[in-house]
Amino acid sequence: MDNQKEYRYITHINSPSDLRNLKEEDLPAVCQELRADIINELSHNPGHFASSLGVVELTVALHYVFNTPYDRIVWDVGHQAYGHKILTGRREQFKTNRKFKGIKPFPSPQESEYDTFACGHASNSISAALGMAVAANKHQEDRNIIAVIGDGAMSGGLAFEGLNNVSSTPNNLLIILNDNNMSIDRSVGGMKQYLLHLNTNGTYNKIRQCLSETLSGWGILNPKRKNSILRFNNSLKSMLSQQQNIFEGLNIRYFGPIDGHNVEELVHTLNEIKNMKGPKLLHLHTVKGKGFKPAEKSATVWHAPGLFDPETGERIVKHTEGEPPRFQDVFGETLVELARENDKIVGITPAMPTGCSMNILMKEMPDRGFDVGIAEGHAVTYSGGLAKEGMVPFCNIYSSFAQRAYDNLIHDVALLKLNVVLCLDRAGLVGEDGPTHHGAFDLAYLRPIPNLTICSPYDEHELRRMMYTAQLPDMGPFVIRYPRGRGQLPDWRCPLEKIEVGSSREMKAGKDLAILTIGSIGTLAAEAIKMVEEEENVQIAHYDMRFLKPIDEQRLHDIAQRFDKIITLENGTRKGGLGSAVLEFMADNGYNPRVKVLGLPDAFVEHGSIPELLHELELDIEGIYNHIKTVLS
Questions:
Q1: Which residues, in sequence order, are bridge partners of residue 599?
Q2: Tell me: the pLDDT tens digits for 428-470?
Q3: How confident is the model at residue 1 (pLDDT cuts 50, 70, 90)?
Q4: Most buried residue among 5, 49, 224, 258 by CB atoms closer than 10 A?
Q5: Measured distance CA(159)–CA(155) in Å, rounded
Q6: Residue 571 and residue 483 in contact, taking contact as beta carbons nearer than 8 Å
């Protein structure tokens, strides 16, 4: 489907140099067209919607003022950057955004010279941009470096580490703070409150308005004097609020807040401050979803809304009667059930209450659910502190984001054997968000850590039983990883029963080949087994291993003594996970079967739908079927 429209301006912008040839008074119309183009395209090719609408004016102003790609724009949280992609020569290709073999879901230097750094995970822009700014100084390059941080990313610890270093390292970095009071859900925490106070100090805003009107009357409020007026505003605000501006306190020159949707004011301000020496921060106030009323009213829903009607704003949600629930919703509902019975249970999530369905607990028991902001390491250590004093925290983090909390998990949870239940949503392939979001590595990076229990459910019933088991006394650190998307069982509720830690299940008996799986990918193996047995006179055994650690050694002894052909299958990297654990066991115990390890390759898997990626990697039913036939031959 090609919904490309002809516009007066953006149809003819093939690079930012074309944008810079326009008159400044043309820029509001460019913004209007760019916003309309994003709305039109995403209505039928879903993606991250509201974030990019909120930075349309900023995107246009940045490419108009700065000499990109020589000047570097480092985006933080790449779902802000759709307008950037369109203005940098990818408008024709944008219809393939997030599609299999299409352009990448987030900016990537592998795709365009205008994409300066990876930005799938939040809060890295300041650190990366500082490195670029220092390198530019070392090379004596007159290059502007701009970090655009927003969508709640300023709450991340790495952002504060970067700010601290910016204040003490010679550089000319420009930090643009896109303050929209949002990440995916509403922003939380002290930084949110601080920025709100910077925006809403009543006395300051009244005096500032009066001053603006007076200076305008005198004819001296013009772009040439804007710098001195902005600096005076900062001093005035500090005096009236009786507190030091945190950025000024770090020796970072602060400007703002200004309206992030006034493109001409943005251009004037950027031109005023871009050649100033030393680090500086421009604070913008924006509205996530700007220009599309439904998104402005409900930014969380419209963060990634799926298909919708661009004229009416009606979302096109396909419901199939009796379809299985999403794994995340089974988690959310089961957590509430457990919390009703166990008053020690609390829920923690780093800025993903809706994404992981922790919002179900937070709605029913608001005092027992905690959104800690974009701060995965803190979420884990905070959970450790709760567990140390007798609570049972269920800490839910997307698998790929949990990579950022690795040391916290080792030092603050596993070392102390604390009963933190780490629930890893979006484990394995996640689809269109691509390599920054695939939960490929959790099994491999968690398995070496002492004291951990690591498991993965075959279906929704198993998820509920694992959650019940995890909160029982003396369980210690307990990891449950499960995939994005829907499960297998429309009738998903089942009794909450204990599973024996380290136990596996024989799903099907056999004598010619043993297939060992972990997690819901085992359901694909079951289908492939049926296909092979319908064609061949063979009997294939299937085992759901359930636990990677402790692994069911009794079961492995039995398998090794009965089978000389084994296949392992996991929705994670095949280096270090279930397959590696089985091979280690066989070597340690003197067994020598033929073992075929199936899993994700030793490479970053690109984006596409999960069925497309599974087929590409030969891990769908057809691929597993072919592997079985090869091993049997």
A1: none
A2: 999 999 999 999 999 999 999 999 999 999 999 999 999 999 9
A3: very low
A4: 49
A5: 7
A6: yes
